[in-house]
Design a protein that fits this description.
By secondary structure, this protein is an alpha/beta fold. The chain has helices spanning 8-32, 44-79, 83-109, 130-150, 153-156, 163-174, 177-180, 182-196, 222-230, 286-296, 326-336, and strands at 111-112, 126-127, 212-216, 235-240, 253-257, 271-276, 297-304. The strands form 2 sheets. The protein has a 5-stranded parallel β-sheet. α9 (222-230) links the parallel β3 (212-216) and β4 (235-240). α1 packs antiparallel against α2 (44-79), α2 runs antiparallel to α3 and α3 (83-109) runs antiparallel to α4. The chain is globular, with a radius of gyration of 24 Å.
Length: 337
C-alpha cells in the first residue's frame, strides 16, 4: 500500500485530539479536587482548584470542538470541489471559529478579575450572569452541527450511485442528529441516573402497592414510562411545558402539558410520590413549589428531587463562605434531598 502523507484535515484532527486529552486530564484533576462531592463539603482551597479545572476544561473544550469542525469542513471541501459547496463550508468554518473564540472569552471574561472565577472573595470582584451566554453558545453549537450534517447530503444525491446507496448514505449522515437531539440526550441522562441508582428508578422507600405518582418536568417521559411499567397498578401522571412524543405508552400513564411554575390542576392529597429530576434551575419560586408538592401529596407521601450538586451563592461574595450561611445550609439540604 502506498504511503499517503497526512493532509490538513488530519493535522487538525490530531490537534483536536490533543485538546481532548487535555480535557480528560482536567476531568481527572477535577476529581482530585472534589468533583463528585457536595461543594459545601469542600475546603476553600479545594473549591478554588476545582473551579480552575472547570475553567480550563471549558477553554480546552471550545478549541477541541472548533478544530473538529474545521477538520470536517476541510475534508469535505477536498472531496467536493463545487464552488457553492466550498463557500457554504467556508461559512461554517468562519462561524465555528467565531463560536470557538466566543466560548473561550465567555469563560475567561465572565468574572473580573479572572481570579474571581475561583476566588469570589477577591475585593471588587464582579461576575456576570452566565445563563444567557451559555444558552446562546449551546444553541449556536447545535445549529452548526446540524449544518455540518446537512452540508454533504445534496452533493451525495448528485453522485452516480444507485438510489438505495444514496438513501443509505443519507441515513448515515442523518443518524448524527441523534447526537444533537435533546430527546436523545435526555434519554442518555435517564440511563446515567439508572446506573447511578444501581439499576433502580429511585431510592425512595415506597410501598410495592404504590397507587399514584406525579413526575414533574418529565421531558421525554423516560422515567415516567419506566415507573408506569414497574407499577402497573399505579396511576402515573407526567407533566411538562412541552408534550413529549411517547409511542406505546403504558395504559396507566397520562401526559399533561403543564408549567411547573403555574398552579397544578390536581386534587389535594392525590399522590403518594412526587418526582422532579434535574429541574433545579427551572423552578422560579421554591417555597411555592414545595407548598404545591405538600398540598398534592398524601400524608406520609414522598417528594423526590434527584439533582446534581451545586453551589448556591449570593451577590455578596463574602457571605458565601461565612459560617452558618443560609446558602450553604440550603446547598447541604438540597444535596441531602
Amino acid at each position: 500500500m502506498r504511503k499517503i502523507p497526512l493532509q490538513l484535515e488530519d493535522w487538525l484532527h490530531l490537534a483536536a485530539l490533543t485538546f481532548f486529552y487535555g480535557q480528560l486530564g482536567g476531568t481527572f484533576a477535577s476529581v482530585a479536587f472534589g468533583a463528585g462531592h457536595p461543594t459545601t463539603s469542600l475546603t476553600k482551597s479545594q473549591f478554588s482548584r476545582f473551579q480552575q479545572t472547570l475553567l480550563a476544561r471549558q477553554v480546552l473544550y471550545a478549541i477541541d470542538i472548533g478544530l473538529v469542525k474545521f477538520s470536517i469542513c476541510v475534508l469535505l471541501m477536498r472531496i467536493f470541489v463545487n464552488r457553492g459547496f466550498r463557500l457554504a463550508a467556508i461559512c461554517i468554518m468562519v462561524l465555528s471559529g467565531l463560536w470557538m473564540v466566543s466560548t473561550v472569552l465567555v469563560g475567561l471574561l465572565m468574572c473580573r478579575p479572572i481570579q474571581a472565577n475561583w476566588d469570589p472573595e477577591i475585593p471588587g470582584a464582579i461576575c456576570g450572569k452566565p445563563g444567557i451566554a451559555y444558552m446562546f453558545i449551546a444553541v449556536v453549537n447545535v445549529f452548526l452541527e446540524i449544518c455540518l450534517l446537512i452540508l454533504p447530503i445534496p452533493m451525495l444525491w448528485k453522485l452516480q450511485l444507485a438510489r438505495r446507496d444514496k438513501f443509505g448514505l443519507t441515513c448515515v449522515f442523518a443518524s448524527g442528529l441523534l447526537y444533537v437531539s435533546p430527546g436523545a440526550l435526555d434519554d442518555l441522562q435517564h440511563q446515567i441516573w439508572h446506573l447511578t441508582l444501581d439499576g433502580t428508578l429511585h431510592k425512595t422507600s415506597v410501598p410495592a402497592t404504590l397507587k399514584s405518582i406525579l413526575d414533574v418536568g418529565t421531558s421525554t417521559g423516560s422515567w415516567a414510562v419506566a415507573m408506569a411499567r414497574a407499577y402497573p397498578g399505579a396511576k402515573v401522571i407526567a407533566t411538562d411545558f412541552m408534550l413529549p412524543d411517547i409511542t406505546n405508552a403504558p395504559h396507566n400513564l397520562t401526559i399533561l402539558q403543564q408549567d411547573v411554575n403555574s398552579e397544578w390542576p390536581f386534587k389535594h392529597d392525590e399522590f403518594e410520590l412526587v418526582h422532579d429530576r434535574m429541574l433545579m434551575a427551572g423552578i422560579h419560586d421554591w417555597p411555592d413549589f414545595l407548598a404545591k408538592s405538600r398540598k398534592h401529596l398524601i400524608l406520609g407521601g414522598r417528594l423526590k428531587l434527584p439533582n446534581v450538586s451545586g453551589a448556591y451563592q449570593t451577590e455578596k461574595q463574602e457571605a458565601n463562605f461565612a459560617e452558618g450561611s443560609s446558602f450553604i445550609r440550603f446547598s447541604t439540604l438540597a444535596d441531602d434531598i
